Structures are given as C-alpha cells and as structure tokens.
Amino acid sequence: MNTLLVSPSPHLHTKTSTASLMRDVVIALLPAVLVSVLFYGWSELLVLGVSVASCVLLEYLITKFLLKAPCTVGDWSAVITGILLALNLPASTPWWVVFVGAVVAIGVAKMTFGGLGQNLFNPAIAGRVFLLISFPTYMTDWTRTKGFISSSLDAFSGATPLGLVKEGGVAATESMDYLNMLFLNIGGSAGELSAIALTLGFIYLLVRRVIKPWITLSILGTVAVFSAICWGINPEQFTDPVFNLLTGGVLLGSMFMATDYVTSPMSNLGGVIFGVGIGLLTMLIRYFGAYPEGMSFAILIMNSTVPLINKFCHGKKYGR
Amino acid sequence: MKTTFSIGGIHPNDSKISKDCKIEVLPLPEVVYVSMAQHLGAPATPVVKPGDTVKTGQVIAEPAGFISAFVHSPVTGTVKSVGPRKDLAGNNVTHVEISVEPDQWAEGIDTSDTLVVEIPQDNKFILDRIKACGVVGLGGATFPTHVKLCPPPGKKADCLILNGAECEPYLTSDYRIMLERSKEIIVGAAIMKQVLGGCRTVIGIEENKPEAIKVMSESLAELQKTAKGFDGIQVMSLKKKYPQGGEKQLIDAVMKRQVKSMGLPIDVGAVVQNVATSLAVYEAVQKNKPLITNVMTITGDCLPMERQHNYLFRIGMPLSYIAQVAGGVPESAAKIVSGGPMMGKAISNMDACTVKGSSSLLYFTDEQTRRKEASACIRCGKCADACPMGLEPFLLNKYARNGMMEELEENAIQDCIECGCCLYSCPANIPLLDVIRIAKGDVIRIIRGRAAAAKK
Amino acid sequence: MTQTIIWTIAIITILGAVLAVVLFLVAKKFKVEEDPRIDQVEKVLPGANCGGCGQAGCHAFAQHCVESPDLGACFCPVGGNDVMQKVADVLGLKVEAKDPMVAVVRCNGTCENRPRTSEYGGYASCRVKASLYSGDTGCSFGCLGCGDCVSACSFGALSMDPQTGLPVVDQDKCTACGACVKACPKNVIELRKKGRKDMRVFVSCINKDKGAVARKACKAACIGCGKCAKVCPFEAITVENNLAYIDFNKCKLCKKCVAECPTGAIHAVNFPVIPPKPAAPAPKPAVAPAAPEAPAAEPVKKEE
Predict the structure, then answer these.
(1) How far is CA B324 from CA A2, B82, B164, in A?
(2) Stretch A170-176: mean pLDDT, rounded?
(3) Residue C174 and residue C166: Cα distance in Å, rounded?
(4) How far is C215 from chain B (nearest CA, A)?
(5) Are residues C79 and C120 in the same domain?
(6) ipTM for this model
(7) What is the pTM of this model?
(8) With an 8 Å Cβ cutoff, is B6 touching chain C?
(9) Does C116 touch chain B (CB under 8 A)?
(10) Which of B202, C146, C216, C247 is an S-S bond match for C126, by CB 3.0 to 4.6 Å?
C-alpha cells in the first residue's frame, strides 16, 4: 500500500483559484478591449501591448531580483493591471509614457506594498493618475487614431464629452446622442468607449460569481441620484444623470476597478459605503473640481479608507 | 416550500456515487478490538479481563463519568487482552481484544425483524434503555444521547429535529437507512418526542434525496394512520447546501432560530438528533439491542461501481479488514478518510477499528485531495461569504498567526464549527481552518478559564 | 500680504501655546507613579522580552523583582547568574547562583531511524499536526519536525536539520528561556543543566510504548530495558512507563549507561575524544543538544 496522505479536514477543495478568478476578469475585459482596438486601430494595440507586456515583465523582474520571492506572474493579476491601465489611456499615448505608467502601477503601487493582496491602492489607477498629473498633454489628447472600422464619429473634435462640458458648459451636451454613446462613445479613453461592451463583461463577472454587484450598483446609484438632484435644481449649470453615467470612466471604474478585491472592502455593507463615497467624490470633482473627470481620484481616495471601513463593517454573524 | 440556513454555505458536488448500493452485512472477522473511546467525553472503563467469555451485546465497559457511555461486546467470544492500541489517528487508546466465535446474543435482546410500534409511556424506562444500550449521537460528534434527551431544568424542547440532511458529499449511509429502515427511524423519533414531552418533530432531508423524502413521508403517513403517538411529526424538504447538517444550521433552517454564541441548541428549544441515532434509539428501546452496529459507506471516485458499498458493520472491526472485504484499497487512493470529505478525519492507521460513529471509508486520489501550495490572500472575501457562522476567516487567520487572543475572541472565533467551508472556498489555498482550529481551542480555554475564575 | 503673514504666525503661535498647555495638563493628570527601581532593574536586564522568566516581558519582570521580598522565585534565564547578581545589587538583596541550563531535544528519530508511515499534507505547524494525529511515523511521541520550536526561539538558537528532520540547538546561542519547551506540543524539548564543560548525558527519546512497539517505530528508541538504570552507580536513572530518564542533578557523567544502551538512545555530548573506555566519574551533571553522537571535544565556555 502507498504511504497515506494525512491532512486536517476538509479534504476537498474548490476548483476556483486566484489564477482562475483573475483570468475571468481578463475574459470580462475582452469585449471592451475588442471595441477599443476596432475603434482606435494599431495605436491602441500598441498601447495595450506595451502596457500588458511591461506590467508582466516588471512583476517578473521585481519578484525575481528584488524580492527574491516566488514569481507571481502566473496569477494573471499583472495582466489585468496592464489591460486596465491601457484602457485608461488615449490610444495616441507614446509607448514610453505607457511604460512609465506601468512602472508606477506595478513597481510603486503594487510591489512596494508587498505584491498582490497587500497593495492599498489600485495599481492601474495609481499608474493612470500619475500619468495624468505628470503628462497632462498626452493624457488629454483624444485625437482619433485610425481604427479598423469606420463610423460616423470619425470626424470628432478630439475632446471627451466631459472635457467639452468643462469648457463649454452644459449646452455642449445638446449635440450628443446618448444612444450612440451607449455603443460607441464619441471620444475618450479606450475603456470609456462602449457601455454595452463593459456591461457585458460585468454581467459575465456576476454570473461567474467573481464579484458581487453591491459596489458597482452603489457607485452608479449615487452618481445617478446626486446628478439628478443637482440637475433638477439647476439644469443650466449641471449635466443630467444619463450623461454622467455614460461618460468618463464611471462604468469602467465602477465595474472593474472599484471592485478590485484587494483594494475594496470585504463586507457588503462596507462595499456600499465605499461605493457611495466613490460616487459622491466623482460627482463633486466633476461638478466643482478642476478636472473634467473624477472617477480615478475618487477611487484612489476611497481606497485609502478601506482599512477603516473593514475595521467597522462586518457581516452578520450567526446568533449575534 | 424549501428552506435552508440563512448565512453562508457552499455547494460542493454531492458525489453520492454509492446511493443505490443496498446495505450489506459485513461478515465477522476473527478478532475484534473494541475501543473504549467510542463517544465524546470520558473513555469507558473496561469491566472484562483477559480470559472472560462474552456474548454479543454484553456490557464490556461502563461509563466513566456523566458524559460517557456503556460499551457492549459486538461479538461472542473470548477476551484476549485489554490494553493500549492505536486508534485512527495513531494515538494509544485502551481496546478490548476479543476473539470471535459464532454469534450468541446476550439474554433479553430481541433480534427479530418485527417492527414494534407501540411507544412506551414511561420516560424513565426509555432513558434507562437508551443509556444502558450505549446509544450515542451518530451524526459525527458521538455525544451520549441520554444526556441530550434530558434538557437541563428550566429548559423545554419546542422542537425535535431529526437530521437526515446528510450534507457531506459522498456519504450515503443515512440515505440508505432512510430508504431501508424508514419506519424504525420514525418510531425512534416518536420515542424521543415522547421523552421530550411531545414537542413538534421535524425530519429534515435535503432535496437531493427525493426518494428518501418520498419513502419517509409514506412511512410516516402509514404509521400516523395505524398507530398512536405519531402526530406532530413532519418531513421537511431542505435546499441542498453544505453544512445543512450542522446542528446550528439545521436549527436555523427548520426553526428560524439561532443559537447564541457558546450556547446549546436547547437554549432555543431545539434538540437535534441524527436519523441513524433515531434508529439506534428504536433498537435500544423497542428491542433492547445495544448499539454495536452502524452503517458505513465505502466509496470514492477511484472505485468502480461494483466496489461501492454500504455496509452494516459491527464496532471493533479493523478498517483494513473492511477494506479487504470490499476488494482492497484501490491503487490510486492517496488518502483514506473516515467521515465526510469536509469534516472527516484522514486515516493514518488502517489497523484502527470501527467505532460507533464510523460512517465511511472514502478513497481520494492525490489529485483530488492534495493541498495546493498557499499563495497570498487576495482579500476576495470568499471565505467570509462561505462561513455559515458569518465569521471572517481571513481576519481570524491573520490574528491567529499573530497570537492576538483578544481580537480573536472579539471576532467570535469560538463560534467556529470547523465545517471547512473557508478552506474549501479559498482560491489562494490558504490553510485557514488549520490555523483557526488551533486558535479556537486556545480562545475557548481562555473563556472557560475566565468563567471558572468568575465562579470562585 | 504682510497682514496674511502676521495673521498666520499669530494663529500658529497661539495654537502652539494652547496645545502645549493642554499636553502639560494631560501629562500631569495621567502620570503613573512607578517605583524608580523598576527602571533601574530593567536597565540591567537583557531586554529580549522573551518571557522566559514567566513574566510578560523585561519590564514586567523588573516589576516582579522589585515587588518580591527576595529573589528566590525570580530568575532571568537569558541573563543568567551575572544579570541576577546585578539585579540583586540594585535591590540590595541576595541571590543564589543557579546552574546554567540549555534546551535539549530528546528525540533521535531521524528519517533513517524512524521511517515515515504517512505523509502529512496540512499546514506545516507542529501544533496543527499534533492536534490531528500522532505524526507521520510509527512513533506517537517523538518530534513532528514542523519546526514550531524554531519559530518560537527569539535567539536563533534552533534550526531544523534537513538531513535528520530534527531541530538542532546551538548551545552558545541558547539562553534556556524555555520558549521552545512551551512551543513543542510533544514535550520533546527539555531544559537540562548545561553541565561541567558543557558535557551532558541524556536519553534522547521520550517514547513510552512497550519496547517492541517502540523499537518497531524507531531504531533509536528507548525500549525501557532498564540496563542503564542497573549500570548507573549514582542512581541517576529511573525507568518509568518503558522509558529511561536521567536526573541531571545526580548524573556524574560517567557514561557507563551510554555504553550499555542497546539502541543508542542515550547520548553523551561535548565529551573530549579520548580512547574507548568509559572515563572516570566526573563531577557535575547534564545533557544536551547539538551534535547528537560524535562526542566533540569542544569545551565551550559558560554563557555570560
């Protein structure tokens, strides 16, 4: 007889692994990636390629030579960071700027904290915000690069809807067609392009039980309610809720970045508080701040409150 | 309407491969070794010595405390030795070794198959029989049944729950007895109901066993029509979710009440007994037959269909003997588990012998059961979602590794029921329960110590 | 502009002054009066906070010393006699010198001596393993090899020998704080007298099974035959529950038992290598760790 294996119970284990969860997120991002590549063409592919490759490479090099720890590239988390970072950048971003973003995302935001599971801030957003502050010109240049498909939107101004509003006031929204924005936004970073593609991915994640919907729903709900109130008070000054939900990174951020396991609260109640916070901050920045878009900053700021939220929000315990 | 417990839980594949295998009676081996630690609590004290001849069903050991139980000889034969022998986990436990001769039952035991339906009205008589026959809970904890059926003064049972959930994957022994011995089980339930003062009685069965639900319901209807004492018993269908068979979860599912931390089921008016225990109660009270047999499942994905079995075994049979009778240990088996895959114990010593609570020999292949290397916690919260007690295993794990006892107690580690849901569901393969189980023991010791100090 | 600067400076100054007063008051109100000798005692302690003395740390130990009428029940295993002398000086008390101790691993169940009978696949912790079962060998008493003692040691005196699967004590680093003794769920580790010139004789086994069972599980097990007890001229050896034990207060390091033991369960360490023949009775006691067999001639100086 063989030597018997002995271990404490349980003796069975779920098939779900860190890698399979992360892989699911990558799969969920594919529709959005596809849309952005079709729309922005080779240059978007380049941004994606550079971003993913440098994230993975950096993680490999850092674990191997700096941390001298087991390599964690196989868990797909660096791939997600790479894709999310790319989806947050204009297609025209030069490759070296993308690389700098990856360095900040993986090198600074993730690995200095101890790698996967330890980071306080969402790496992709940290990278993006760093770039936004350091290279504002590249980061707001939404020049249409040549895509694989043509659309009626080909000739567009090179500014995002939010940018237009920041400059031109609410009147600028009159020229926009919301139905069109649902499928192909009139401009913006790759990840902002198609609400439908993003939602498809989000539904996939829900069906696969990778994430729970509370954080996303509370962000979207807060954005909708807050903008509805402001818009109701003064439609001349504030944009309407539908516009706010469909533009900028609200969908991408609420579905894929705020729901990042590591940097979001563990409990459902915590998730709702976290989401409401993000929603409020986003709208405050949009309506009253200097930047046209507030999602990234809102998520970063709320990331820093997660340990506190976790300390005070716990699930319902049996018999208590 | 199907019901279930309210917090957490997981849905492992139920793998009831051996569910259609009828219960077979195992032939007797040449020698049996009867452990004195057949139950929770103090091991029994042997009352036989080498050279004594014993009959089947004769008392060979007496309880050594309030929480302890009688042990009876499972065979007829001669006592060869009384001494230490290694149990399932390789630890020394006193065993009585008996060489086996043809069966000759001790006097006063009814070995016929006739169903005795009339329920004795004398509670003391019932409890004495249950105690004298060494009946213990067969759902896993092997807690002496007569103790559980005597609620402490001032507490009253509102509901007797018969646990037929069998939520552990692979196990089919409860399922088989519900199909083959349904009436005996229901009579047993009626007896316990009588002792508890005629409270409501619910037989909870998970929906993945529709035949058991059907057979039990039919038998119940028949008994209710033909005999007295069966009113207020009902069969309840439960959703399939592990750990439904956990005492606290079952109470939540059936009664919608939750036992307070460190409390007992009787605090909320509940008494939970396994269906196999109910069968043992029937045999003890109606037949005066001591608990020396039980049903165990021999199964595993690596066994061909014809080698899957449900056996009626006697206590004291070496596991290696049973495995041999069942066709040997399969080549590809890397781990053998006694009990369910979620809460059972891995066997390190196949020379160990069956006890009252033995319920299975499960064969797992290396690929199925070997733990994968742990990686970093990604804070996905899947362990907290799975925990049926609403605890946060990731947090407890962290505190336990740092020896933070106060924080552990604040976060209710003492409520952990060790069901294994957290470790099962962790995508990073972190040995959560291994760490939590030890720390839980420490914290409970601290709490008890404090309670004892407060009394003084 | 100027006004802004003036205002700023003024506000900050006022703020600073107010806060200083608040801090002063708080400090005054919550000041804890403490015996100044506690600080003095703490200063002479090693500051390892290992808890080896039985107190929560060095400060608690200092408090304990100050509050005790005499130092009989106080001993800092890390600092040893020297430190206790200093503590006694500070407090104006007397202290008796204690024999230095060292941790001794009483198991010689190497991979070779003690074949594996199962494979442990759970969390690598002796406590977890011990709570699960008797261990992955036939011996249900011996070392489990997961190294809880190693992680418990604050002084780096313990390490696992990958070859034998057993922990090894570095007697120069060991302070006899007893953390490993507490950490070992099997009670394999014992604190024994360090011995004259670090020479020690001890039974490297704690198996209480009957001889045949013990022997079957491990080639180097003590089988409780009692030969050692018979041969010992100083009545230092007792055999109880099939297990021999050498009282380190009575042992005179004659090594007769070592030669007599049929399984080699009795170890003598740090004896100078001299030709065969048991050496003449030497004075003091003891036993110990490192270098299991091979009596290395390396009289090590006492700690401190």
Answers:
(1) 15, 25, 29
(2) 62
(3) 16
(4) 15
(5) no
(6) 0.89
(7) 0.86
(8) no
(9) no
(10) C146
